[in-house]
Amino acid sequence: MAAAGAGVAVVRRRLNPPMPYDFRGKSVLITGGSRGLGLVLAREFAAEGALLTLVARDSAELEQARQELVASGADVLAFTCDVRDEREAANAIERAVARYGGIDVLVNNAGVIQAGPVEHMQTTDFEDALATHMWGPLYTMRAAAPHMRRQGQGRIVNISSIGGKVAVPHLVPYTTSKFALAGLSDGMRAELAKDGISVTTVFPGLMRTGSHFNAMFKGQHSKEFTWFSIIDALPVSSVDAQTAARQIVEAARAGSPQLVISFQAKALAALQALFPRAMAGALKAMNWFLPAPTNEFSGDINRTGWESQTPLAPSVLTQLADQATEDNNGMHGQAAVS
Questions:
Q1: Per-residue pLDDT averaged across 115-138, rounded?
Q2: Record's GO cellular component, any one (predicted)?
Q3: Nearby residues of 84 by Cβ (< 8 Å), 6 or more positions away
Q4: What CATH code is carried by the domain that includes residue 120?
Q5: Which residue, among 28, 20, 19, 72, has the nearest Cα to 50 in the 3D structure?
Q6: Mean pLDDT across 177-200
Q7: Cβ pair 163, 129 in contact under 8 A
Q8: Interhelix angle for 172-192 vs 123-130, to 10°?
Q9: Per the domain annotation, does 11 fall within a domain?
């Protein structure tokens, strides 16, 4: 019966293809919209004629992003918000609705990255990652869903990671929270579909967004920053943020249930599904090559990429990712450590 029903649905879609979703005049809220992928997505939606609401925790970065987008002709509401706080997350939705009369598209993009050996990760590192990547999206989705339900339509895009399919060593808090977001996103998709609300889960591979300088590092800080920056920058292992953003916008337009970005990410996901034992061995071998834990006194301290630079990072090896930091409003952290 399920197969027959699916077949009927396919035939109906082919005979009556859905109209393309037009973002012009639509109210689009992006969390973590002040820099990196969030800002690149804002540019893409602005080019589509969307009405933007950007929220993030850094007011200076937000204002810089707002000024850039307004100068390009976009209609932008920007204000500070910590989505880890349920009241702030709900207030962000209400402010967007008050400004634009509704909320059509919600992009849960806000993120944090903590890199280093699990020996140096504290409970607070896991709590912060889960609060940002799982609780924050839950809060915003719960606040936005009633408005979308009344409209009879809506698009929700949750930015997970290939780390939400494959648990990469030295990123355990990050991958734990991204797995949680993937499960939350899948469950919300099934239950919100009846209300005309589509939920897209995005699993990007490494992207050159400029996030490496603003990530947090533990253990041997400089070595952790170096390996992370290099693989985040090389074209063979990463994609540029603009390519990723365009794919995300198109997935949102189509209401796609899932988007995996980059050939490398798709290959990793397939290998994990088909050959879990081999992947377990490969990830174990990868961990052997990563920097070993160090003493608790220094290794347990969080340091940003700005505080962990080496002769190799930044260098010609990280040039593409370094340029993305400058292009995508990620330089604010430099002033804090200079």
A1: 98
A2: membrane
A3: 128, 131, 132, 135, 136
A4: 3.40.50.720
A5: 28
A6: 98
A7: no
A8: 30
A9: no
| Length of the chain as a residue count | 338
Cα–Cα distance measured from residue 29 to residue 66, given in angstroms and rounded to the nearest whole number: 13
- Give tens-digit pLDDT for 191-238: 999 999 999 999 999 999 999 999 999 999 999 999 999 999 999 999
> d(Cα 85, Cα 91) in Å, to the nearest integer?
10
| Angle at 142 (CA atoms; ends 6, 252), nearest 5 degrees | 50
Whether 13 is in a domain gets the answer no
Which residue segment(s) compose the domain that 232 sits in? 21-330
Which of 64, 62, 20, 69 shows the shortest CA–CA distance to 44? 69
Please count the structural domains in the chain.
Answer: 1
Tokens of 77: 């509401």
Task: Give, as one character, the DSSP assignment of residue 30.
Answer: E
139 is catalytic: no
Q: Is residue 239 part of a domain?
A: yes
Catalytic site residue from 21, 100, 139, 174: 174
Give the mean pLDDT of the chain: 93
**Residue 279, class by beta-carbon neighbours within 10 Å (0-12 exposed, 13-18 middle, 19+ buried)?**
middle
pLDDT in tens, 35-74: 999 999 999 999 999 999 999 999 999 999 999 999 999 9
Q: Is the pTM of this model over 0.85?
A: yes
Rounded CA gap, 317 and 326, in Å?
Answer: 16
Compute the distance between CA of residue 83 and CA of residue 91 in angstroms, rounded to an integer: 10
pLDDT of residue 224: 97
Query: For strand 216-217 and strand 303-304, is the pairing parallel, antiparallel, or unpaired?
Result: antiparallel
Copy the structure tokens of residue 158.
């949750």
Q: Is residue 295 pLDDT above 80, yes or no?
A: yes
Tokens 């809060």 belong to which residue? 139
127 and 140 Cβ atoms separated by less than 8 Å = no
Q: For 133, which DSSP code? A: I
